[in-house]
């Protein structure tokens, strides 16, 4: 969604704004009781996003990590790193996904 016409708006946003909206955008894309919680880091360059209610969907974590990474890069973030705690612990799926996000 960040290609074509939408890329024009990417020039006017910041990585922090993209981070602040990522959880709610993902939650809105799914039906049911999906909710998100975003906690910004003190330095303003990252934080955590927790998404609850997706069910245990296999391999969703890497896809969402990639989507968030590309979005924050598109909005001007450098050296973006997005990881998901369950996936990094060797679990393929979890009902609560917690993403750790940082950029320079």
Biggest beta sheet summary: 4 strands, antiparallel
Report how far apart the termini are. 23 Å
Strand content: 15-25%
In what order do the strands lie side by side in the largest sheet? 1-2-4-3
Number of strands: 4
Order of secondary-structure elements: HHEEHEHE
> How many H/I helices?
4
User: Unreliable segments (pLDDT under 50, ≥5 consecutive)?
Assistant: none
Overall tally of structural domains: 1
Mean pLDDT: 86
Tell me the helix content.
Answer: 25-40%
Main structural class: alpha+beta
Rg to the nearest angstrom? 13 Å
Shape descriptor: globular
What does the model show?
By secondary structure, this protein is α+β, with helices and mostly antiparallel strands. It has one domain (6-102). It is 38% helix and 23% strand. Strands 1-2-4-3 form a 4-stranded antiparallel beta sheet. Strand 1 and strand 2 (46-52) form a beta hairpin. The longest helix is centred in the first third of the chain and has 15 residues, at 15-29. It is globular.
Comma- or semicolon-separated keywords:
single chain; 104 residues; alpha+beta; 4-stranded antiparallel sheet; globular
In short:
With 104 residues, the protein is α+β, with helices and mostly antiparallel strands.
């Amino acid at each position: 969604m960040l290609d074509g016409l939408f890329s024009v708006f990417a020039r006017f946003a910041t990585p922090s704004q993209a981070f602040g909206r990522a959880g709610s955008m993902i939650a809105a894309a799914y039906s049911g009781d999906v909710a998100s919680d975003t906690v910004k880091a003190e330095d303003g360059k990252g934080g955590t996003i927790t998404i609850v209610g997706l069910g245990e969907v296999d391999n969703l974590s890497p896809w969402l990590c990639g989507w968030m990474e590309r979005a924050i890069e598109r909005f001007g973030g450098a050296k973006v790193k997005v990881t998901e705690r369950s996936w990094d612990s060797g679990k393929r799926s979890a009902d609560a996904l917690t993403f750790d996000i940082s950029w320079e």
